[in-house]
Design goal:
By secondary structure, the protein is an alpha/beta fold. Helix 1 links the parallel strand 1 and strand 2. It is globular, with a radius of gyration of 17 Å.
Amino acid sequence: MILGKKLVIVLPAYNAALTLKKTYDEIPFDIVDEVVLVDDASRDNTVEVGKSLGIKHIIRHEKNKGYGGNQKSCYNKALEIGADIVIMLHPDYQYTPKLIYSMAYLIANGVYPVVLGSRILGKGALRGGMPMYKYIFNRCLTFAQNILISQKLSEYHTGYRAFSREVLESINFEVNSDDFVFDNQMLSQIVYKDFEIAEITCPTKYFEEASSINFSRSLKYGIGCMSVSFIHRFNKWGLMKSDLYHLKK
């Protein structure tokens, strides 16, 4: 518990057997109540490693549902077991679990309902090994998205995210894509619903076992993100009505 609120960490996993233990061992269980591991039909023994670590809540997709589909299972399970605060942590050890304290307390204290671990604040991205083309792509894409969505975020593309229960129950993330653009759709829904978003500086690591997408997938992702941003703006102007913003009551 953290200030009387149940904290659940969700781990969306795909072929994470080599890094799962390292990630899990750094989770601060003095405040974390439960861990949910969702394995998206990995080809390795991610599930077996999770069981050996004593993770109680493990879901295995028999067919690969994609990054967004994995997150849907993560959040639904976290809400089902009574989470008040949910933090998504990638089990590939690209993001440090040591920031869980800071992210959780911002929500538990009622300061912000959403917290992002930003790789761009400070110099953590390039120092951690982010390829230069990805860094430039990230900065340009974020600049355009901030204009269209009327925000001032340092990046929209981090996989380190914390949410209050209210946020997850208020947005209809089930209608989102099962692919990587899910992340951007979710942030668009959060902004559309007028939830405030905090960011904290997050060091990151790029290494062989860390999950990443190639150039062609990155290009497809970028086009998807811009599409989401234009849809967001057109809905704000009343020029269209997207299912993304048929929000939960």
